[in-house]
Structure formats: structure tokens, C-alpha cells
What does this fold into?
Amino acid sequence: MLRTAAILTLLATPLSANPIAEILCAPSKQMQQKLEQQFRSARAASGMRSPEQMMEVWTDQRGDWAMVVRYASGTSCIVAMGEHWEETKNPT
It folds into this structure.
């Protein structure tokens, strides 16, 4: 939970009464640097949502994760975050 609070202050965005509605955005370069350097996270997965949007999942060694939308405009937004990320393998 401490990490979640730290990410919420990442961009000094004021908290509202409904934190689920809160989306944290920053220039993509700044978002990437914060996730890599301050939170020791790495991009674990990514996929194209549309020609203008990439979805990324960032994780750290403790299992904390953040889902980020990277826009072609140069902005990235954290749209979800949580704990206990676990890699799974597809059944064969």
C-alpha cells in the first residue's frame, strides 16, 4: 500500500473522494523515468490497443504493478495499479 500511495503522489495530482476515477498522466519520458528509477519497475508486457495507444504493464520484484496507456501524442497515463502480480503460462 505504501507503493500505491507513492505512485499517487508521483505527479502531485490531488486526490478526490473517488480514487478509482483518478487517472495519473505525465509526458511519456517522465513517466518511464519515474517507473524505472524511483519505483524500480520494468515493462513486463505491452500491446497495441489502437494505432494511437499502447497498453503497458509495469512490474517490480515485489509484485507491485501498474497499467499504463502510452498515447502517440507523447503522454502516458496510469489507469490501474495493484499488488501481487503473477506471471502465468498458457495451457498447452
User: Anything to note?
Assistant: The mean pLDDT is 81. Residues 2-12+23-82 form one domain. The helical segments are 2-8, 28-38.
